[in-house]
Design a protein that fits this description.
The chain is an alpha+beta fold. It contains eight helices and four strands; from the N terminus they run H-H-E-H-E-E-H-H-H-H-E-H. Strands 1-2-4-3 form a four-stranded mixed beta sheet. Helix 4 packs across helix 6.
């Protein structure tokens, strides 16, 4: 609810317990239903090589839905999409050996603090669970301003760092403005969904310079 308030967005939560998500038929149909009802242009999911089983199974569910959202006889009570969305994987904490370079990078340099503010809404995750599971010795700050700085450093800037393999992709999408890009979100295209060329990607990501 706090994330919803901070982002001014809508969302739905499916009824799955933490650590117990399965890539089964019931959940697949739920994902297909949601994508069809949203008439999504872009669907973003976890990478298939993620460390957490819930994340990997989410990725598999979305991959399975990527083709089936267009099939009329699958879940016929919800009209099939006539055009498939673009399906993307986020960058994981581990390297994708099959496809090490991202397809799309988005400059988030101007909004790094906004991202930190959204992450801060997940208080128990960021300030309790992750420090515990990572056996962290870092002191969690007390004030809101210090917490945003903590998240900015530990999560946003570190995970959005431009790696050497990212530079050609940044230059591809940002051209002469590439040097202004300091922090990114990186995405890999899932080929089970919509096939897109560079022109279509620029239409879907209007923040790219023309």
């Amino acid at each position: 609810q706090e994330v919803k308030k901070r982002m001014n967005c809508e969302y739905e939560i499916l009824n799955n317990e933490d650590g117990e998500l399965e890539a089964n038929l019931k959940n697949r149909m739920e994902v297909i239903r949601l994508i069809r009802e949203w008439k999504a242009d872009i669907v973003i999911t976890h990478p298939s090589y993620d460390y957490h089983p819930d994340h990997r199974n989410t990725s598999l569910l979305v991959q399975d839905a990527a083709f089936l959202v267009n099939v009329p006889k699958i879940l016929p009570e919800v009209p099939a999409l006539t055009e498939s969305p673009l399906f993307l994987y986020t960058r994981g904490r581990y390297a994708d050996r099959q496809k090490p370079n991202p397809d799309i990078v988005v400059d988030i340099t101007p909004v790094v603090r906004e991202k930190a503010y959204i992450i801060d809404a997940h208080a128990s995750q960021i300030y309790e669970w992750l420090p515990w599971i990572n056996r962290s010795n870092k002191i969690i700050p007390d004030t809101q301003e210090e917490k945003i700085e903590y998240i900015l450093k530990e999560y946003v800037l570190k995970r959005g760092e431009i790696k050497e393999k990212d530079r050609p992709v940044v230059e591809k999408w940002y051209g002469s403005k590439a040097k202004e890009v300091k922090t990114i979100e990186a995405f890999e295209i899932c080929e089970f969904g919509r096939s897109v060329d560079d022109r279509e990607i620029r239409e879907l990501f209007p923040m790219f310079p023309k």
